[in-house]
Amino acid sequence: MARPRLHHTPEEKLAAAAAKRQRYESNHKAAISARRKDRYAARKARQLVQEVEQVDEAAAAVRIAEEQDNLRDIIHMQNAKLWNLTEGSDRDYAFKCAVRTRAAEDGQKYIERIIAKVKDIRRPLWAACRGLKTLKLTEGDSWQFAHAIHRRFNVLLDYLEDIRKHDKAGSLSESIDDLELACTQGLIWTVCWMTTIRRSEE
How far apart are CA 30 and CA 84, in angstroms? Predict the structure, then answer.
């Protein structure tokens, strides 16, 4: 037997649809806002390209230079935020997060908050990369620098996703030991490299 109809008139259907949209928007406010910001940045970049095609070359060069400076500022700002978050070492930061995840009462919620925080910092960087691509500025230093930072974000997120996976599987203690060994090896490599540099300078 089919369930009884909930809405009998077109007005009731419209009201139910509006209520459903409001519930969805209130539950996904952050994601909707992020998507709108990304679309706005892409639309502004497309508008700039259209303006460039219509105005004279000298004025276009000035506008592109200004937009490139703005995108470069965004890239450096997100790099500074990542540096402040990890204090310069992604592996050490991941190791600290792993230890805190193991010590937390609800480790999954803790590490998921950290992952969401890193993704929020990465999002403007991704929009800046897309802006550079739209402006056809994919051969300069800004593009290479942005991609290097983007790769670093991806590596850090891989570390954090591994921590979340191991915590869910109950094998976080072994993974922390492996990560601690990797951090120690990285530190030894850095010390050896700095020693080599000093000897070559002498």
Answer: 23
Query: What pLDDT sits at residue 185?
Result: 44
Q: 186: Cβ–Cβ under 8 A, 6 or more apart, which residues?
A: 89, 91
Give the side-chain half-sphere CA count within 13 A for 195.
6
Residue 5 carries which DSSP code? P
pLDDT in tens, 23-64: 888 888 888 888 888 888 888 888 887 776 666 666 666 677
First to last CA, the chain: 89
Q: Are 104 and 110 in contact (CB under 8 A)?
A: yes
> Can you give the C-alpha Rg of the chain in angstroms?
24
What single letter denotes the amino acid at residue 133? K
Q: What are phi and psi of 31, to 5 degrees?
A: -65, -40
- Yes or no: say if 153 and 82 are a contact pair by the CB < 8 Å rule: yes
Q: How far is CA 124 from the centre of its chain?
A: 7
Structure tokens at 43: 């639309």
pTM over 0.85: no
Instruction: Report the distance separating Cα 165 and Cα 194, nearest Å.
Output: 35
